[in-house]
Specification:
CATH superfamily of the largest domain: PRC-barrel domain
CATH topology of the largest domain: SH3 type barrels
Shape: globular
Number of strands: 14
Largest sheet: 7 strands, mixed
Number of domains: 2
Number of helices: 7
Radius of gyration: 19 Å
Strand content: 25-35%
Length: 266
């Protein structure tokens, strides 16, 4: 299901033995546009400390109850590596964090989540912590590609022939934990109209200038199927969107690249 990133704020995170806290922010990877971590406000039980939760640990999201269940215990989270969410998350921290929980380095695999397209497809050992944590942290690159969705919201959007509006929202696939679409508000050019573009069509992001450039013309974007905020995105709408832009849909691309894919379709 595709969910506006703002809907994640305030979700209750429930561990196997109690509530951890509530979701505050989402960290996405600016290379793959995957949601790598959820920042969780733990409240009184950890003295207000914030922690990161990886989609690797997520079991189920109950949108009606506004709750997200994770395969973690309170003790695991309490002993997890501390993070200062006011500072950039380093690759060294990530390596230590992933090693602590026994998760794979997502950047080392061929797919969105390392060995799989979906975090639920990754097998996590029962005794997660290992001595490999220190080695990962020592050998990891210093580069990080993590950004907070809320901080990027409002960036100016540029087509190949001029500005088209601003980035109004992120639409998240809550199974793949990936940004599937960026909502573009075009009110300065076409009053009231909002359209969607895929991160796959983004040419570059200038963090210094707060700009996102897409490899599409203003005319193509202006004539794209309109997106009505709050309306569920159907596969029929997605097909019209990709047909309009003449681009292959993500679900076909992922099917071709999947390790289970073959010419026979088996």
């Amino acid at each position: 299901m595709l969910i506006n990133a703002s809907e994640f704020e305030g979700l209750v995170i429930r561990a196997t033995d109690g509530e951890l806290g509530t979701v505050q922010e989402l960290y996405f990877d600016d290379e793959t546009w995957a949601i790598r971590y959820l920042t969780v406000e733990t409240g009184g039980w950890l003295g207000g400390r914030r922690v990161l939760i990886s989609p690797y640990s997520i079991l189920h999201t109950d949108w009606a109850a506004r709750r997200l269940d994770v395969a973690l215990t309170l003790k695991q989270v309490e002993a997890s590596p501390s993070v200062d969410t006011h500072l950039p998350v380093s690759r060294q921290y990530e390596a230590g964090y992933l090693g602590y929980y026994g998760y794979p380095n997502y950047w080392a695999g061929p797919y969105l989540w390392g060995p799989a397209f979906y975090p639920a497809g990754v097998s996590v050992p029962p005794n997660a912590f290992s001595s490999e944590m220190a080695d990962r942290a020592m050998n990891a690159s210093t580069d990080t590609h993590l950004r907070i969705t809320e901080e990027v919201t409002g960036y100016h959007m540029e087509a190949i022939d001029g500005e088209i509006g601003h980035l109004a929202a992120f639409l998240i696939d809550d199974e793949a934990w990936a940004v599937r679409y960026i909502e573009v508000a075009t009110r300065n050019w076409w009053p009231g109209k909002k359209v969607l573009v895929s991160p796959a069509w983004i040419e570059r992001v200038s963090w210094q200038e707060s700009k996102v450039a897409v490899a599409l013309s203003r005319d193509a974007i202006q004539n794209a199927p309109e997106y009505e905020e709050g309306t569920p995105i159907t596969r029929e709408y997605e097909n019209r969107l990709y047909f309009h832009y003449g681009r292959p849909p993500y679900w076909l691309t992922e099917a071709r690249e999947s390790p289970a894919f073959s010419l026979s379709g088996v």
